[in-house]
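User: Could you go from structure to sequence for me? I need the amino acid at each position, not a summary. Structure tokens:
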């Protein structure tokens, strides 16, 4: 059995030793200078007997216990295990280096706090540091601008709201279709030095088109309940999985307002498309920004139909990837938008029922 040091470790000094963090495993452990030295010598696969030779001052039993401990915290990886496969996939496919990997893998599948926990934290913040200005005002010398509400597009934009309470009615297939087309539909093609690039209503860094959309249809008029892939190329939907009751709430990190939503669009990044062209890790930021453009167009198309699109970045990434059959390390769910008819009749609040997350 061979082992080696994990390639996903980062270290920070702390009180005479180090805190180590494995961003693929999301494990944290304390690490002495001696252990750091040992790990630095285990860069390549090593047989157990050779590993034992690296620790001449210890008895075999002690060595086995040390190695077991190091394996359990993710300091070492055993050959031919799922962890080793993940590391290999990371090494071979993640070309944007450690800082982006640290960020990306650290935010996958994290637990989310409840609304009341979020409120408690905010109340405590008000007590400890006070409220914070959310705008920077200009002086009275500032140039006055014309009334912005003078055209239809801006009036439509101003109507967009996140309303988490939904009427118990279906959304319609043509409404979902318009939302998908506004966000991702192909509206043209551009030739560059090596080939053709798809163009859409939303800009894409280098025209790399990293996003695919999946529709979670719970109650869509004209569409059988299920999970569908939207092909921007053909502007069509293909069924990829069944949709279980409760799936939407699970997929949005357990937020209870998902349960009654008739439909959700999930945007998944295929980062390899952007990596193919850009070696600069800044391209990771580009992909996140693109999700905002696509999401905004989806929200505006929904608003035009009298629907509300509720955005959320709180996601159960692993559950989503397993439903959708996405296996590559460079593919990740990034942003979800539920679609529903908002509950705005008398007595129901058109305002978000939860504070900003
Ligand atoms: C990137 C992003 C992530 C969001 N994530 C959540 C979320 O996890 N849960 C939620 O209830 N609202 C979420 N929201 C919605 C905001 O809370 C909402 O936009 C905010 O309260 C302002 O309301 P408005 O959308 O009606 O302008 C998110 C919004 C954005 C832009």
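Assistant: Here is the amino acid at each position, in order:
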């Amino acid at each position: 059995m061979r082992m080696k040091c994990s390639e996903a470790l980062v270290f920070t000094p702390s009180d005479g030793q180090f805190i180590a963090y494995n961003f693929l495993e999301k494990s944290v452990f304390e690490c002495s200078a001696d252990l750091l030295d040992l790990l630095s010598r285990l860069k390549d696969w090593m047989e157990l007997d050779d590993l034992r030779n690296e620790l001449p001052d210890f008895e075999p039993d002690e060595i086995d216990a040390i190695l077991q401990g190091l394996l359990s915290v993710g300091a070492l990886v055993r050959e031919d295990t799922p962890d080793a496969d993940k590391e290999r996939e990371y090494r071979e496919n993640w070309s944007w280096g450690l800082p982006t990997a640290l960020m990306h893998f650290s935010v996958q599948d994290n637990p989310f706090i409840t609304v009341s926990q979020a409120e408690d934290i905010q109340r405590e913040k008000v007590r400890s540091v006070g409220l914070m200005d959310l705008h920077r005002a200009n002086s009275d010398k500032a140039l006055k601008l014309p009334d912005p509400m003078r055209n239809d597009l801006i009036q439509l934009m101003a109507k967009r709201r996140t309303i988490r309470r939904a009427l118990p009615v279906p959304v319609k297939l043509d409404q979902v279709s318009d939302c998908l087309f506004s966000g991702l539909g192909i509206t043209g093609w551009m030739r560059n030095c090596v080939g053709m690039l798809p163009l859409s209503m939303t800009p894409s860094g280098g025209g790399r088109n990293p996003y695919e959309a999946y529709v979670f249809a719970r109650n869509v008029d004209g569409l059988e309940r299920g999970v569908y892939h939207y092909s921007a190329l053909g502007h069509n939907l293909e069924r990829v999985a069944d949709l279980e009751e409760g799936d939407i709430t699970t997929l949005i990190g357990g937020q209870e307002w998902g349960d009654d939503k008739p439909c959700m669009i999930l945007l998944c990044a295929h980062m390899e498309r952007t990596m193919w062209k850009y070696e600069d890790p800044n391209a990771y930021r580009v992909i996140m920004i693109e999700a905002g453009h696509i999401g905004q167009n989806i929200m505006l198309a929904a608003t035009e139909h009298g629907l509300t699109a509720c955005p959320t970045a709180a996601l159960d990434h692993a559950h989503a990837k397993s439903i959708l059959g996405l296996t590559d390390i460079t593919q990740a769910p990034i942003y979800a938008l539920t679609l529903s008819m908002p509950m705005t009749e008398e007595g129901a609040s058109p305002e978000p029922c939860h504070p900003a997350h």
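One structural detail worth keeping in mind: The first strand starts at residue 2 and ends at 5.
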